[in-house]
Write a structure and sequence with these properties.
322 residues; mainly beta; Lipocalin; 10-stranded antiparallel β-barrel; 4-stranded antiparallel beta sheet; 2 helices; elongated; disordered N terminus
């Protein structure tokens, strides 16, 4: 069966590898020295939006209980401030957004202090520090270099103020380790799962593209030209899922799943694109590529898919407040 559409690529793709992101790109070129005037300089980069997910950790842990967690980090438009949103799924669903103030201490270390919104309507997009209150007991302290960030809070001090925060206190970070594309975090709630429990989240890369499904589904013949296009698809590399629809917008009964996995048998990391039958949750077909791939697709005759990795902005690092 001839392809409905040739593989059309809309832009060149950055091949510079994984961009160090986020939160935490609270990174400068080495640890910062103290200011001569005694004030603590702010250290924060020009942050690009970044999302981290522990999808592979959850997949590897089955049937053990590891809650799915996604952490979204974004600049707030003010030097020294970032937004940190944590979403916990599974049996218990929680969602909390903290405004993080990032400064260096006089010894050159890093201090990250979570802030809680004073108003229910407070939104990071309209960030005003006056509408957020510092949670000093949960401040994280540590060090940052050009490649690594390590921070830890005092669990006892944080526990002392947790009752006044409510259920969302479960999503406060007690430790943060940022190393390349990995963001390893021990949440306040992880303490209940043991001394070594933590969330191992990896930076999500986005793929966009199209999919075509034949109206006859898997029974389509070579002369069937009843194609239903799904344009503008966008899936994250850490368990991103997208339903495929018929041209009238109704569900076709099939979905796409994009995920990075490492199989125990060979220990080889892959980027995997799957077509799933929604009714049975069965994987109908899948394709593998290396994790750094910028394109991935499937042509099974009755279903055809083409995805391309989005260009990601380089993150400029700088030291400010000096």
């Amino acid at each position: 069966m001839a392809s409905v559409y040739a593989w059309a690529m809309k832009r060149s793709v950055c091949n510079t590898g994984v961009v160090l992101a986020a939160c935490l790109t609270l990174l400068s070129c080495g640890n910062l020295p103290p200011r001569s005037d005694g004030a603590a300089p702010v250290i924060v980069a020009a942050l690009a939006p970044g999302s981290y997910s522990n999808h592979e950790q959850v997949w590897q842990a089955q049937p053990l209980e590891t809650p799915p967690v996604q952490i979204d980090i974004a600049a707030l438009g003010r030097e020294g401030w970032v937004s940190w949103r944590t979403r916990l799924a599974g049996a218990t669903r929680l969602d909390a957004t903290w405004a993080m103030r990032v400064v260096s201490d006089p010894s050159g270390g890093v201090v990250v202090t979570p802030h809680r919104a004073l108003e229910v309507t407070a939104e990071p997009a309209r960030f005003d520090p006056e509408t957020w209150t510092a949670l000093e007991g949960c401040a994280l302290r540590g060090s940052a270099s050009a490649t690594r960030l390590e921070l830890a809070a005092d669990p006892a001090a944080c526990a002392a103020i947790a009752p006044g925060i409510g259920a969302q206190a479960a999503l406060l970070p007690l430790t943060i380790e940022q190393d390349g594309e990995w963001l390893r975090v021990r949440l306040f709630s992880d303490q209940a799962r043991g001394a070594d429990a933590r969330t191992d989240a990896r930076r999500m890369h986005w793929f966009e593209g199209w999919a075509a499904v034949n109206g006859a589904g898997r029974n389509a013949t070579a002369d069937n030209v009843d194609w239903h296009m799904n344009r503008g698809l966008r899936l994250g590399s850490e368990g991103g899922r997208q339903a495929l629809n018929w041209r009238d917008g109704s569900a076709s009964g099939y979905s796409l799943l994009l995920e990075r996995l490492t199989y125990r048998e060979g220990g080889t990391p892959v980027l995997k694109l799957s077509v799933i039958e929604d009714a049975s949750a069965a994987v109908i077909v899948y394709a593998w590529a290396n994790p750094e791939a910028t394109r991935i697709g499937i042509n099974l005759g009755w279903v055809q898919i083409g995805l391309e990795r989005e260009v990601e902005p380089l993150i400029a690092r700088r030291r400010v407040g000096q």
